[in-house]
Every structure is written in structure tokens, then in C-alpha cells.
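Input chain follows. Return C-alpha cells only.
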Amino acid sequence: MRVLVTGATGFIGFHVARFLTEKGLHVRALVRGENNSGGLKSLGVESVWGDITDYDSVFRALDGCSQLYHLAADYRLWVPDPRKMYDINVRGTMNCMEAALKRGVEKVVYTSSVGVLAASSTGHASNEESRASLHEMVGHYKKSKFLAEQEVNSFIKKGVPVVIVYPSTPIGPMDVKPTPTGKTIVDFLDGKIPAFLDTGLNFVDVSDVAAGHWLASQYGEVGQGYILGNKNLTLREFFEYLARITGHPAPKYRLPYLPVLLAAYVDETVSTLLTHQPPRIPLTGVRMAKKYMYFDASKAVKELHMPQSPVDHAMSRAIEWFKENKYTRG
């Protein structure tokens, strides 16, 4: 079986492509240039040049493919020009769904984000039924993914057989960019995190997320969504895990929210108007920290048989990979 994966040069996408090849599928990856193909060649992945913002290239790439795994997205907490993010995340998704409709693919797995679900300020774990509104979305990434999922739902009504997955906060090796979570691990290793905000996240092994994508194609119900997550941890607990693994001291001081929020506003204003470089304190990240991003993955575990590998093992592999690839001095 031949399948198309968009976003295969990204963190989750690479692991999905690798998992699918290990399952014996012929994986075709839509990539924007040879320099972006990463380690896909070593996996035996067929790379085709294209861009999800270009409908014709997506349609050509889907030729002969039975399934589409659409993971490509612009995931940043700050962007100098948000229009590009909406172009990729919304219009790019529409192009993929339209091409899947015209090609008559058997199954589409669309990678959304837990960020489009309603989060709790009390630490209560949200599930797939915890719906939110566009007004509640913090930052352009969440807004663009929310709008993209609305488009996906409209294509489901047109007959596109889409299963939606919601990855939480993945951890593991091959976090090349790295993701905001990976950057936090690197900063911890370099001793750059003296304090933390009182918030929480749901962490998951990126290998389990990759497995969850394939399991969604096998057992997922069209039109349904599945949270691909595992363990809910406060940020303090997360750093304590890292401390136990590395022997580095965990940050001891909890920062008050309002002063950090004010600093983030100032920092982002300077970035937007003067430096045009990513802020050291992303405002979107601080605003997101106001709520606990805790999620319940029991639906995916029960219906998809998604694995739940120990999160600390994923942290250890991520740390080892960052060190081997010279991301950190720690």
C-alpha cells in the first residue's frame, strides 16, 4: 500500500513516516526541497517535491496513494507575519482535503492539536468532547488549527473519510528544530531555567504518537477524534523528572504569573517592532500557561489500542539525542 505523508520532515511527521515504513507501507513524503528531506532517505521513504499551499503539487503527490496522513503545519509560538501561518495551516489543509476528495483516498488521518480543545484552569483533564470556540484560542497557531479543523469537518460532510488525532506534548529523539518542548529540555540542560510558572501539560512518547496515527487509520471511526497523550504533569514535576534523569538541579522558584505576563508583552512588542526575532518570553506561551493543558487519552487507548510507554523513558531518549547532536553543553 502506498501512502502520502505531509510534514514528514517535522518531529512527529518523521516518526510517523518511520513507523509506517516499519509496517511495510510504501511511504511517499511531500517535501519542499531536497535540503529539507532530513533522514527520510535512510528510511527508504520516497520524497516528492511540493508544498501543501500549492494544490496541484498535493494532487500529483496523491496519485496512487490509498491513504493520506496530513501532519504538515507551521507550529510556532510567535511569527512576524501570521498570514503565512494561516496560509499553511488553513489553506494548506483545505488543499489536502480537496485533493483527497478528488483522488478518492480510502482514509485520511488529520493531525490536529489538543490546543483546539477546551483546557481547564483547575487541573481537570479535558477529553475529545471538551469543545472550545475560536474566541478561546490563544495565539495564531491555535486559531489557525481551530479554523483548519472546521474545514476538515466540512470535507468529512462531503464524504472524505477523515479520522482526526490530537497529539498532546510529544517527547523523544529527532526533535531537530527543536519544538518548544525540546527547546525547554535543551535550556534545562544548559542551566538556563532558574524558575517556572505554575502550569501543567500532558506528555507522551513521540513513538506512541506515531503508532497512534497508524492505529487511527486502522481502527478509528471516520469523523471521530482521538487524543494521543499519556501523562499529566505539572511543570514542576516535569523538571523534577529531568533532574532525576540528568542529575542537574531542578528549578526551585515558582514565578508569579502577572509579572511574567507583563514581561512577555514588552518582549513581544520589541520583537515585533524592532528586532523581528523570536522573543525570549513568547507571549502566547505565557498566556497558554494560565490553564493546565491536561488531557484524557483513554478513548485512544480503548478504541485504538494506543500504547502508553513510560514518559521518563522518552525524556531520557530525547536528552541522549540532544547531547549526541550537540544541541547542549550540559
